[in-house]
Amino acid sequence: MKQNLCKALLLQENEDFEDTGGRSEGNADFGFRPAFLDDETDTVYLSRFPDGNPAPFHLLDGLPEEVVIYRSPTGRVVAAKASLVAGFVLNGEFYTREAAAAAVSVLH
Fold it and tell me: Cβ(98)–Cβ(21) under 8 Å?
């Protein structure tokens, strides 16, 4: 069973993809934008700050209510649906972290 998406999971993924195009720092110059794909609905959500502005990295706080599982008393997103996958959007297409890393390695 997949675990809910949370900050700890995003941090672990960032460690797993350190120094690759599977992180925002490694692919932003190629036009990739951090996003989340809901595997259940095939809906893509660009990563956003709580005010709706685009975020340059994966941030849970800007996710819409329909994918939020739990918020802290201060309103921060603590957990989101387990069906969410962190990845990136380029030219309207969603890339998993693995696919973004592979694409960037070819573009170098």
Answer: no
Using CA atoms, how far apart are residues 88 and 81, in angstroms rounded to an integer? 18
Indicate if the pLDDT at residue 108 is higher than 80: no
Cβ distance 95 to 103 under 8 Å? Answer: yes
The 10s digit of each residue's pLDDT in 47-100 is 999 999 999 999 999 999 999 999 999 999 999 999 999 999 999 999 999 999
Gap between the Cα atoms of 33 and 106, Å rounded: 18
- The token pair that represents 19 in the structure block: 């120094």
Give Cα separations from 8 to 5, 16, 31, 77 (angstroms): 8, 12, 26, 12
Q: Say if pTM beats, i.e. exceeds, 0.85.
A: yes
Report the relative pairing of strands 43-46 and 93-96 from DSSP bridges.
unpaired
Kindly state the tokens that stand for 12: 């672990």
Structure tokens at 40: 């259940």
- 88: region left, alpha or beta (phi > 0 left; psi from -120 to 50 alpha): beta
